[in-house]
Amino acid sequence: MGSRKAIDNSGQETPEPPPARSRSSCGFEASHELEKVLSDTEKPYLSRLRQASWIELKLLFRLAAPAVMVYLINNSMSMSTRMFAGQLGNLELAAASLGNQGIQLFAYGLMLGMGSAVETLCGQAYGARRYDMLGVYLQRSAVVLLITGLPVTLLYISSKSILILLGESKSMASAAALFVYGLIPQIFAYAINFPIQKFLQAQSIVAPSAYISLGTLFLHVFLCWVVVYKIGLGLIGASLVLSLSWWIIVAAQFVYIVVSDKCKATWTGFSWEAFSGLWEFVKLSAASAVMLCLETWYFQILVLLAGLLPNPELALDSLSVCMAVNGLMFMVSVGFNAAASVRVGNELGAGNPKSAAFSVFMVNLVSFIIAIVEAMIVLSLRHVISYAFTSGEVVANAVSDLCPYLAVTLILNGVQPVLSGVAVGCGWQAFVAYVNVGCYYVVGIPLGCVLGFKYNLGAKGIWSGMIGGTMMQTLILLWFTFRTDWNKEVEKARKRLEEWDDVKQPLLQ
């Protein structure tokens, strides 16, 4: 389908504005007001800061609150699946955790990372009010991710051999592979869900996804109970229900896009243009994927290394509980990651450098404060957290010993993912990928292996090294963000949109 166009007074074609959307209009007006307040040097500094903070907090929480809810609920589906598996026995808990953290997170990181390319483009295009470009970006991203899902499927099919090759026991690898086989349909749900999610977030449409995810969570828990306990399908049944739940979310969100008036200007139907410019999109998606995959796989490697320790079942059980809690709390940061990406992308696309810089400051401050609170709660509940997953006292003691490391990780997660969201909003994925390689894989993992195996510190040593890598990466991103020239970033955003518009535009003639 062709894009909706209008002719302005100068004879130029401009994208037709969306139908009346008071919320979006208010968002653009608030964004313009924020830039005006920050630029008004006649007002006292504290007065400008107070007024700007109030404007930014309203914009931020309107995005972050539903986004946090979406990611928390989606993570809760995965965590509840592991809980059902854990009630079958310690082997089943370890197998589900190994399959989830060791194999499934590979696909999650890859697909979410590649989906971040559409987040950069849609966020900046929406800020520049080039609404017709968003639907094509969504479809182009879905095509690229669906094709990527094919080799990932082969990885899932080979998961048993891979885990044995990595040193896991045959019984553990067999049980984990059984769980992974049921997650194969989930790969392709990811391939469609993440572009849809970023498409909606770029337009500040987040609440519908939250309601859809919440309804699906209740259905998921019920179906897990029926399939695992009543029908008795065990691990494979639990993972198949998880795959089905993700497809329900995808279908419901797509129906919303098609029928909602809020997406009429940005979704004009399926188009053959989605199959054009794929190679350019693959290159941008690859940079995004490398950036996020290196982060996602980092703690995935922690779980795999734990499987090589003496008494691997206890190490995996205790780590899986801590990683489940970390994953749940991490979703709060990911929600702010999404909000940061949208806010920065929109402001750069709209040509508001001061607003973009101020948004970066506010979103990091709020996320960091929340992370401190999370860490305090975890430490206060360190002796009882594990009983939500398994009734074993030995596991509970091991989890209690690891909780201080979990608390430090949560505090770092209050800043690091948000800075990654800023990077996506600005299009810095390639730079962050290099930083991640150095900090995580040159420093963090080798240091963790030395502490864990050579000095016999076990899971604590592995985790300590990886915390060091995360801290190093966070400090580098903080320094780079602090030194950013936001006027130059506005100009880069304008050039990027022109470049991508050229890829698409000849097909409309």
UniProtKB/TrEMBL annotation:
<dbReference type="GO" id="GO:0016020">
    <property type="term" value="C:membrane"/>
</dbReference>
<dbReference type="GO" id="GO:0042910">
    <property type="term" value="F:xenobiotic transmembrane transporter activity"/>
</dbReference>
<feature type="transmembrane region" description="Helical">
    <location>
        <begin position="234"/>
        <end position="260"/>
    </location>
</feature>
<feature type="transmembrane region" description="Helical">
    <location>
        <begin position="361"/>
        <end position="385"/>
    </location>
</feature>
<comment type="similarity">
    <text>Belongs to the multi antimicrobial extrusion (MATE) (TC 2.A.66.1) family.</text>
</comment>
<feature type="region of interest" description="Disordered">
    <location>
        <begin position="1"/>
        <end position="26"/>
    </location>
</feature>
<feature type="transmembrane region" description="Helical">
    <location>
        <begin position="143"/>
        <end position="166"/>
    </location>
</feature>
<dbReference type="InterPro" id="IPR045069">
    <property type="entry name" value="MATE_euk"/>
</dbReference>
<keyword id="KW-0812">Transmembrane</keyword>
<feature type="transmembrane region" description="Helical">
    <location>
        <begin position="281"/>
        <end position="306"/>
    </location>
</feature>
<feature type="transmembrane region" description="Helical">
    <location>
        <begin position="172"/>
        <end position="193"/>
    </location>
</feature>
<dbReference type="GO" id="GO:0015297">
    <property type="term" value="F:antiporter activity"/>
</dbReference>
<keyword id="KW-0472">Membrane</keyword>
<feature type="transmembrane region" description="Helical">
    <location>
        <begin position="318"/>
        <end position="340"/>
    </location>
</feature>
<dbReference type="GO" id="GO:1990961">
    <property type="term" value="P:xenobiotic detoxification by transmembrane export across the plasma membrane"/>
</dbReference>
<feature type="transmembrane region" description="Helical">
    <location>
        <begin position="461"/>
        <end position="482"/>
    </location>
</feature>
<feature type="transmembrane region" description="Helical">
    <location>
        <begin position="205"/>
        <end position="228"/>
    </location>
</feature>
<feature type="transmembrane region" description="Helical">
    <location>
        <begin position="55"/>
        <end position="73"/>
    </location>
</feature>
<feature type="transmembrane region" description="Helical">
    <location>
        <begin position="105"/>
        <end position="122"/>
    </location>
</feature>
<protein>
    <recommendedName>
        <fullName>Protein DETOXIFICATION</fullName>
    </recommendedName>
</protein>
<keyword id="KW-1133">Transmembrane helix</keyword>
<dbReference type="InterPro" id="IPR002528">
    <property type="entry name" value="MATE_fam"/>
</dbReference>
<feature type="transmembrane region" description="Helical">
    <location>
        <begin position="405"/>
        <end position="424"/>
    </location>
</feature>
<dbReference type="Pfam" id="PF01554">
    <property type="entry name" value="MatE"/>
</dbReference>
<feature type="transmembrane region" description="Helical">
    <location>
        <begin position="431"/>
        <end position="455"/>
    </location>
</feature>
